[in-house]
Structure formats: C-alpha cells, structure tokens
Amino acid sequence: MPHLVIEYSEGAVSREEVSHLMEQLASAAARTGVMKASDIKVRARSYDDFLIAGKKDSFIHLSVYLLAGRTPEQKVDLSEQLRQVMIESCANVVSLSVDIRDMDPVAYKKRLK
Question: Which terminus has fewer CB within 10 Å in the chain: N or C?
C-alpha cells in the first residue's frame, strides 16, 4: 500500500540515478519498520517546467502516502531516514524535501489482479 512518489527537475539526476534512488528509498523505508518491503510502490516523474524560489534550480521532492495509523515519531523517523538517503545520493541537487501524507483507510480503495 505505501506509495513513494518522487518528483524531480529535469537534469537533477540521470535516469540511471533515478532508478537507483527508487531502490534505495524503498529499501530505507522498509528498514524503518514502518512498512513492509513487499507493500511498497515507488514511481518517479520528471518535470521540464518548474521554479524554485523564482529560479530554475534543481529539486527532488518525495511524497510518501501511508494509510493513517502511524505515530508522529514513526513518521518523523521515516522522513529523516528518507531525506538522508536523498542527501547521500543527490548531493548536488539544490532542494531536497520529503512529505509524509496520511491516507484515509476508509476512503482508500484498490484492486489487485
């Protein structure tokens, strides 16, 4: 169920680096114990058009969507662990950010085949 959605500026990282970052973030998220590795879904999207504080600076933003129920401490730890992976993997990127979002378990619906 957990979704890790990476948004990044074109040129911030190469396609190979994005693939590697996706794997690293999924592994780090699983190591926190907040989610199981087998449940994690990761995707990435590059943006050609963007401004960071009025400039075309590089960015990577990670949104993590979880079903509600984790403690604030778990979410802070998850955010810090994921941000650290980004810092180590993307040292030259100007803006790195992580946002943890709770999803309503009553409203969230999915179908698997």
Answer: C
In angstroms, what CA-CA distances link 70 with 1, 2, 16, 78, 99? Answer: 14, 12, 32, 10, 14
Mean pLDDT value of segment 1-29: 96
Q: How far apart are CA 63 and CA 101, in angstroms?
A: 7
Copy the structure tokens of residue 29: 């998220």
- In this structure, how many other beta carbons lie within 10 angstroms of the beta carbon of residue 37? 11
Which CATH number belongs to the domain containing residue 89 in this structure? 3.30.429.10
**pLDDT of amino acid 112:** 82
Domain that holds residue 93: 3-103
Domain assignment present for 110: no
Q: Which residues pair with 4 in a beta bridge?
A: 42, 64
**Quick check: pTM over 0.90?**
yes
Q: Give the residue among 81, 2, 72 at the shortest CA–CA distance from 37.
A: 2
Q: Phi then psi for 91, rounded to 5 degrees?
A: -60, -30
Residue 44's φ and ψ, nearest 5 degrees, are -140, 145
